[in-house]
From TrEMBL:
Species for this entry: Actinocorallia herbida
PANTHER family: ECF RNA POLYMERASE SIGMA FACTOR SIGM, RNA POLYMERASE ECF-TYPE SIGMA FACTO
Stretches assigned to the RNA polymerase sigma-70 region domain: 16-78
Entry-linked Pfam families: Sigma70_r2, Sigma70_r4_2
Similarity comment text for this entry: Belongs to the sigma-70 factor family. ECF subfamily.
A Gene Ontology molecular function term of the record: DNA binding
UniProt-recorded name of the protein: RNA polymerase sigma-70 factor (Sigma-E family)
Keywords: DNA-binding, Sigma factor, Transcription, Transcription regulation
Length: 178
């Protein structure tokens, strides 16, 4: 094995799981994410020396994953499945309220558009800034802000409905308007 192959193999061993988690969050499907990461790594391998010399190869691969996911969304009309937890099993005993809330959040994420879902994953799962998210998605910061705003509004509305009416609405329903 030459030096480039060894460097690529080491990178995949060290960061492959993180890339898979990232792709799973973007696609909502572990199997689709595995295929996506595999395809991106296959395309990156022949040019690995150049990619790794440029600076941060993980940034390059994450951007490639986002682009590949976008291409898949454009051509793939099948419905996305719910987010799946990567890297461990669910706890055996989950308090019922936590389970219901988690399920509501997963369902709400599932209802977002692919662009909104990508922004939420990058901003809140990956912890990227608006500028970093914009650079990774190859869009403007304004697009990131508007997508984030719309996605958060949709998530709040969906999760709020799943948890029941807000407390003020409950009191209005029970005793009429105040």
């Amino acid at each position: 094995m030459n030096e480039t192959e060894a460097d690529f193999t080491r990178f995949v061993k060290d960061r492959g799981t993180a890339l898979l988690r990232f792709a799973t969050a973007l696609t909502g499907d572990r199997h689709h994410a595995e295929d996506l990461v595999q395809a991106v790594l296959e395309r990156a391998f022949p040019k690995w020396k150049r990619i790794s010399r440029r600076g941060d190869p993980e940034w390059y691969l994450r951007r490639s994953i986002v682009n590949a996911a976008k291409d898949g969304w454009r051509s793939d009309t099948r419905a996305l499945t719910l987010l799946e937890r990567v890297g461990g099993e669910e706890p055996v005993a989950v308090p019922f309220d936590d389970y219901v809330r988690r399920d509501a959040v997963r369902r709400a994420l599932h209802e977002l558009s692919p662009g909104q879902r990508t922004v939420i994953v990058l901003r809140y799962w990956e912890g990227l800034s608006e500028a970093e998210t914009a650079a990774l998605m190859d869009v403007t910061v304004g697009t990131v802000k508007s997508q984030t705003h719309r996605a958060m509004r949709a998530l709040r509305g969906s999760v709020e409905l799943a948890d029941g009416p807000p407390p003020d609405a409950e009191s209005e329903m029970a005793g009429g308007r105040r």
